[in-house]
Amino acid sequence: MYKHITLAAWLVLAACQPAPHSNTASTASDAPDCAKLPESGLCYNKAIYLLQFDSGSRPNAPDGCTWTLNETALPQGEYLLYLAALCDNKATKLDYGNGTLRYRDFPDSTPVTIIPATPDGHTAILDYAKAKITDPKEAARCKVRRAAIDSFPADALEVDEMTIGESEKIATEGIRTACGPFGLDQDSQRYWRIISDHALFFDLGQDSAPFDPGSLTIYRPQTASSS
């Protein structure tokens, strides 16, 4: 059974959340009779405090839905915690496979790609995006910059040939794409985030996502921390 969480309640949690790396596996699962998440074994009521939100505002859940907490098992004993849309008592579930997250109910979709953020997040993102560009001259012009889109998470990044200022100057010329399939697309919700030691690429189309991209949190039981 999923627990319904109102947006107001999540805003309170976001305001009161502890700093990264301050949560431990023991404090998140110290009640043996608590309702537990099935994969990680975390107590539900404790796991919500592990979420590390981006600093932007929380999006509304899709029409007719509320937010709930869900999880996805990742390689090397990690878990991804996130706010998922709960609609008609069924929560959005993301499944991991081959470096991507897919909707369980729509397995042909790939809303999120995950890569290691090594040697650092910006370098990893740029190298990955440039490797998918067929034109070497275009690839050489690409760089990572903040997205600066109000509806995106506050820490969202884009791969583009232009700075934000340069892009704004030609905004009236129409919708623009740049830097290949993992770069800018002004007609879609497409951006990167760096979460812990992972870089995540979000390709969410134009509709409201059935999960909160700014809520994704990596939980590591081995190191007794989350980030």
Output the keywords.
5-stranded antiparallel β-sheet, 6 helices, globular, 18% helix, 2 domains, 26% strand, 227 residues, alpha+beta
Structure overview:
This protein has 227 residues and is an alpha+beta fold. The chain has 2 domains: 7-94 and 212-226, no CATH class; 121-203, no CATH class. The protein has helices at residues 7-16, 25-28, 44-47, 121-131, 136-141, 164-169, and strands spanning 66-73, 79-87, 90-91, 94-97, 100-103, 112-116, 143-146, 157-160, 190-195, 198-203, 217-220, 225-226. Mean pLDDT is 86; it is low at 10-29.
Task: Set down the secondary structure blueprint.
Elements: H1 7-16, H2 25-28, H3 44-47, E1 66-73, E2 79-87, E3 90-91, E4 94-97, E5 100-103, E6 112-116, H4 121-131, H5 136-141, E7 143-146, E8 157-160, H6 164-169, E9 190-195, E10 198-203, E11 217-220, E12 225-226
Beta strands, count: 12
- Distance between the amino and carboxyl termini: 27 Å
State the order of secondary-structure elements, H for helix, E for strand.
HHHEEEEEEHHEEHEEEE
Q: What is the 3D form? A: globular
What is the share of helical residues?
10-25%
Radius of gyration: 18 Å
Provide the β-strand percentage band: 25-35%
The total of helices stands at: 6
Kindly report the average pLDDT value.
86
How many domains make up the 3D coordinates? 2
Judged by helices, strands and strand pairing, the structural class is alpha+beta
Largest beta-sheet details: 5 strands, antiparallel
Low-confidence stretches: 10-29
